[in-house]
Every structure is written in structure tokens, then in C-alpha cells.
Design a protein that fits this description.
The complex is a heterodimer of chains A (about 110) and B (about 250). With about 110 residues, chain A is an all-beta fold. Chain A has no helices and eight strands. The mean pLDDT of chain A is about 95. The chains are: A mainly beta (about 110), B mainly alpha (about 250).
């Protein structure tokens, strides 16, 4: 399991814009770099990140080899209903990670 | 006459390196990199701190004890510890750095095989312990043996080395603030180790940073944990005394 730092507000006012931030530990090996033996290291990157609010996707991103190690993504969404935010990262070599956070939306 | 006045003005305008205006490498970074360090949710070094926090309470070794079993809450027991290392290990009577101290603790009290220096495990635990001193001023111990070590370190700092025949002082005292190629030469205060370097795309130790410099001047690197490496670290810490600990810092 990769380590993750998520910043999600615990509460939000309905209709307000909230910022969500996600940082995950991952080497993001590009697939272009030679290793110490001279052989090109195989690519090992996160390909896709998505955030769903109660199952409905509110944000997604495709990641490519030029993205730095330990990718950090900050994005905004509109607070709708109290529920669960699900963050998923999927990548090479079967990498998959899911994190969830509760958020309470007040009228 | 005018030339002499101009020369005097120029001399007055030149920053006196080291003594008067000490700058952390933080001050020379771009606003974006500074923001990255300042925000714990964006600082990738915090991933290692988080890892270290897990290791702090994980039981290990033949005695099946965790760090927390002896030291309790790190926030209280480890506060200010990193700010005074390298320090003298009472049993051996010689100086150790923080990573070495942790390894000794693992050997003696957990009866475990300590994680090798600069392994992810060692870096994570060191970062977690050092993080407990964030914001506190660096305060080298008042010990004659440490003073001796600092003097040795100061000599190493001023010793020309490598094929380029350069000493640390020639860049980091005499030319600090100027540029080496595109990068600002920092004053070389080790305030934030272990730190996350964008160039490394990972967390690294002071020893690794020193290796970068020594190979840069094409000299033989200090062996990590060796007497010379710890002496140099002791000198650098005395040079940075009073500056706040930043662990985990971010550097370009």
C-alpha cells in the first residue's frame, strides 16, 4: 500500500466550492531512464486518478511519464450531499489504491 | 579619491558570508517550492514522516519492543532531539548522528538488525524523529568532545579537495548567494534533513547531499557515518546554531 496524504474538509456548506488535495507516494518511473546496469528501466507510473462523490465521478486525471514522482493533485468540486468521497489511483504493474473520506454537507 | 570611495562602498555592500546574514536554503527557493514545503498536505517529505510514525509504534527485534514502548509519545519525548545532534553516545564515548543514534537504539534495546543507512526505513524513522523538532532552534550540545569535533569539521570544511581543488568554504562561504550555472549557491545550513529534493524525487540524508558536492568537485566522498562525516555535520550544525529545524524540508 502506498502512503497517501489527503486533504478533505470535514464539513462544507451545500453549493460551495471545496478544494480537495491528494498526494501519493509513487516512483513514477518514466520507462525512458537507464538503470545502473545500463538497461532501460521498465515504465512504472500511475495511469489514472479519479475522485467520486457517492459513486459519481467528479474529477479524473490521466497521468503520463513526464509527471514527477509522488504526484500531487489539487482540484475543486461543488459540495452537494453528505456522503463518501472515494479516491482511486490505478497504474502499471497492477497498481491500484483506493481511499475514502466522509464529508458532511450542511444546508 | 572617487575610486577609493567607490571601492569602500562596494566592500560595504558585499554580504559578509556566514556571520551576519545567515539564510536557510528555503529563502533562495522559488515561491512555488516554498509553498510546497510550507503546506504539509503538499510536502512529499510528509509521506516519509507518516511512514516513520508507523514504524515508531511497530514492535521489532528479539525483545519485541517498539520505539514507543520506551520513549512514549514522540511529540513529547523527541521534541528538540534532532536540534542537538550529532551528540556523544555515552556508552561508546564517541559522537553519533541522529540516524546512527536510531540504529544504535535498535541494536541495543530492540536487539534488531538496524536498517542500513539511507534505506527507506532509516530515512523514514529519522525524518519522523527530526520532524518533532520542527521550528525549534538548532542547539549543538555544550560538550568539549563536540567542540573538538566541530573544530575538526571546520578544518574539513576549509580543506581543498578533489580534482577541482575546491573546499566547501570556497563555494558556501565565499560565493554563497551567487550562481553556479543556473542554481543559487546556498550557504549550506543543514536545517531540514532528511529532506525531499526535487532533483532526487525522494527523501535523502545530509550524507547524500554531501556526496553530491564531493563528487561534484571530483573528490572521494565521506563514508556515511564515518568520523569525518560526523565531524563535518557537527561543524555545519554549529554554523547553523539558532536557525530553526525545517524537517522535512523541500529543496530544488
Amino acid at each position: 500500500m502506498a502512503r497517501v496524504i489527503l486533504q478533505v474538509p470535514a464539513t462544507a456548506v451545500r453549493g460551495s466550492v471545496i478544494e480537495l488535495r491528494a498526494l501519493i507516494q509513487h516512483p513514477m518511473e518514466t520507462g525512458f531512464r537507464p538503470g545502473s546496469s545500463g538497461e532501460v528501466l521498465p515504465r512504472d507510473i500511475i495511469r489514472r486518478f479519479a475522485c467520486a462523490w457517492d459513486g459519481e465521478e467528479v474529477f479524473s486525471a490521466e497521468l503520463h511519464p513526464a509527471i514527477a514522482a509522488n504526484p500531487y493533485l489539487a482540484f475543486t468540486t461543488i459540495a452537494t450531499e453528505s456522503g463518501t468521497l472515494t479516491f482511486t489511483w490505478k497504474g502499471d504493474n497492477g497498481f491500484a489504491q483506493t481511499e475514502t473520506r466522509r464529508i458532511t454537507v450542511t444546508p | 579619491m572617487r575610486a577609493a570611495v567607490l571601492a569602500a562602498l562596494l566592500l560595504a555592500a558585499m554580504p559578509a558570508a556566514g556571520a551576519e546574514e545567515r539564510r536557510s536554503g528555503f529563502a533562495d527557493m522559488s515561491a512555488a517550492t516554498q509553498a510546497m514545503q510550507a503546506d504539509d498536505a503538499a510536502n512529499p517529505g510528509m509521506l516519509w514522516v507518516l511512514d516513520g510514525e508507523g514504524r515508531w509504534s511497530r514492535k521489532a527485534g528479539r525483545t519485541e519492543r517498539s520505539c514507543a514502548d520506551c520513549h512514549g509519545e514522540a511529540a513529547a519525548s523527541m521534541r528538540g532531539v534532532a536540534a542537538r545532534y550529532p551528540a556523544i553516545d555515552a556508552e561508546r564515548g564517541e559522537a553519533v548522528d541522529l540516524a546512527g543514534r536510531i540504529a544504535l537504539c535498535q541494536t541495543r534495546h530492540q536487539e534488531a538488525t538496524p536498517a542500513p543507512r539511507e534505506s527507506e526505513a532509516s530515512l523514514a524513522l529519522t525524518a519522523f524523529v527530526a520532524h518533532q523538532s520542527r521550528g525549534l532552534p538548532i542547539a549543538p550540545p555544550d560538550d568539549p568532545r563536540i567542540a573538538l569535533l566541530q573544530a575538526e569539521g571546520a578544518a574539513l570544511y576549509r580543506m581543498r579537495r578533489g580534482q577541482l581543488n575546491l573546499s566547501c568554504a570556497q563555494c558556501h562561504d565565499d560565493n554563497a548567494g551567487r550562481r553556479l550555472a543556473g542554481s543559487v549557491i546556498p550557504q549550506g545550513h543543514p536545517t531540514g534533513y532528511p529532506l525531499y529534493r526535487l532533483e532526487w524525487q525522494g527523501l535523502g540524508s545530509l550524507q547524500r547531499r554531501l556526496r553530491g558536492c564531493t563528487t561534484g568537485v571530483r573528490a572521494e566522498s565521506f563514508a556515511p557515518g564515518s568520523h569525518d562525516a560526523i565531524a563535518l555535520e557537527a561543524y555545519l550544525m554549529s554554523r547553523a546554531a539558532g536557525m530553526p529545524v525545517e524537517t522535512p524540508a523541500v529543496r530544488p
